[in-house]
Specification:
Length: 310
């Protein structure tokens, strides 16, 4: 570091973090702090806009008008979450075009859970309860993030995620108490989304290269494994209370620790899907590329109008 005042500035920065102060866009921050936030927030934003696709496929096939309206509202929320988060990332100096180009060119990550297909209507329910439920646990933690714009975006997003989770949970409850065919439909959807939802929390803490720095600077305030355990302890009894099961024969309650414990995640699958070899990776990127191309005229018209208005 060729900045002679770097150590002093870093010490002041870390004192602010320790005091629970929020770091704002114009404040001094280590380059590594800025890079970590750009990485996390842009990937989070990508996850929101790609996350619209699995459920969006069912809007035209919702079983009734109420379900259609709820799903429409949820998918629209995800689009808004993406805009919120791209804006939060822009406060760190990266442009919207850089982030979108990285996504469309396959250079940027997004939550691997969205690279799985939605094979039936109950998948919409399972995504709401399991996937948005996992996202809420992660995002409630991020609402305490040391970077102001990210933590404030999370407050608004978590409020809407609460609705996303509840609408999914309500459907699973209804189907579990419905006809045998409905109960089976709910069980099959939980079987499909259980493991991809667990993968949303990331690798084990011991295999998480970013966690130490993120925890040191208050970007993360809880670790991947801590949040995953909270998810297990809430969802396993909740699913079992409905007469449904999780697709893990080793799942059991550990009296000694007071936690639910199951078998290991298939980490080969985890990394394979992240690296692009999941069932829907190509289809998701193709859909985003088409949406971007279809929206070109809107961007050009808005730019022309802004130029005409001077
Ligand atoms: N999918 C894709 N990539 C993942 C991943 C997942 N489930 N879990 C980890 N990774 C990647 C990380 O991005 C990192 O790669 P990178 O260094 O190239 O970015 C690598 O695997 C190692 O993982 P780490 O644990 O070191 O990474 P993090 O400390 O950043 O932890 C994380 C991973 C928990 C996803 C964290 O980045 C995070 O909390 N991100 C913000 C929240 C987020 O993106 N949530 C997505 C939810 S989807 C959503 O909200 C839509 C809602 O409507 C359902």
């Amino acid at each position: 570091m060729d900045d002679p005042t770097y150590d002093t500035r870093l010490a002041e920065f870390e004192t602010r973090i320790a005091r629970g102060e929020k770091i704002e866009p114009g404040d001094w921050m280590p380059d590594a702090y800025r890079k970590q936030l750009i990485r996390m927030i842009s990937q989070h934003a990508n996850s929101e806009v790609v996350g619209m696709l699995p459920e969006g496929a069912w809007i035209t096939r919702a079983p009734n008008l109420r379900r259609k309206m709820v799903l429409l509202a949820k998918v629209q929320d995800e689009a808004g979450h993406g805009q919120y988060l791209y804006h939060a990332a822009e406060t760190l100096g990266i442009s919207r075009d850089e982030m979108i180009d990285a996504l469309l060119e396959g250079r940027a990550k997004y939550a691997s859970v969205f690279n799985y297909p939605t094979l039936g209507w109950a998948d919409v329910a399972a995504i709401g309860w399991l996937v948005d439920g996992a996202a809420i646990m992660n995002q409630t933690m991020l609402a305490h993030c040391s970077y102001g714009p990210y933590s404030r975006a999370m407050v608004r997003i978590c409020a809407e995620e609460g609705f996303h989770k509840k609408q999914g949970q309500e459907m699973i409850i209804r189907y579990s108490q419905g006809t045998p065919a409905q109960k089976q439909m709910a069980q099959e959807a939980i079987d499909r989304w259980w493991w991809p939802a667990l993968m949303m929390f990331g690798p084990h803490d011991s295999d998480s290269p970013n966690t130490p720095q993120l925890m040191r600077w208050g970007i993360k305030t809880r670790t991947n494994d801590e949040l995953r355990q909270e998810f297990l302890d809430e969802l396993v009894p909740g699913i079992q209370a409905l007469g449904l099961s999780v697709p893990d024969p080793e799942m059991h309650y550990d009296e000694a620790t007071g936690h639910w414990v199951g078998r290991e995640i298939d980490w080969d699958e985890f990394w394979r899907v992240i690296k692009g070899d999941g069932p829907m990776n190509a289809s998701r990127l193709a859909a985003r590329r088409k949406a971007h191309e279809d929206g070109r005229w809107v961007r050009e018209a808005a730019a022309a109008y802004a130029q005409a208005m001077g």
